[in-house]
Amino acid sequence: MAKRFNNLDAALKYLRPASAGEDGVVPDAPAGTPLKKYQDWKAGKVDIDYPRSASSNPGKIVKVSIKPFALPAASTDEYVITMSNRAQGQYALFGLSAAALGAAAVDNNDIKAIGFKPAKASCRNVTGTTPTSVTSKLTGISYKTKADVAYVFPFGAITAQPSYSDQKAAILALVTAAGESKTVSFIPEKF
Known about the structure:
191 residues, alpha+beta, 21% helix, 2 domains, two-stranded antiparallel ribbon, globular
């Protein structure tokens, strides 16, 4: 579960009486509270939908190849992955390029591995200047956010940055240099 839910998970844990032990049943949170809304969602009692706007749909899915970080630096093997055509057209917005991400055209020697998930850079460009109030569907608590667009770019090892930490630092530097309205977070690969 995401770190942002740690405080809610801890609150649910502390509802359980100390005498019940680690495996004891967690009682229901007080009705009408944000904690109760979260507890119901976590238990699967409510289904929350986050519909995508038409402008954020991925469009056509394209195949590219990358070199996984789990392979030795000397390896020349590349794996076939997919990314959205929408994201592929937005490298420059974040100061990135296919070469900087280690993405290349697919050829016949590339490996199609079932279960492999590439490392990803989740980039956000804040386009709004005035925060608007939004209500969380999970807790019912109001928070402020600015308008933005986001893209997810898969990335792999390149000669200059053969390790995940080196490549991550290089991508962070490029996105930071692209402007203060740009942010990036990372998801490691699963090999």
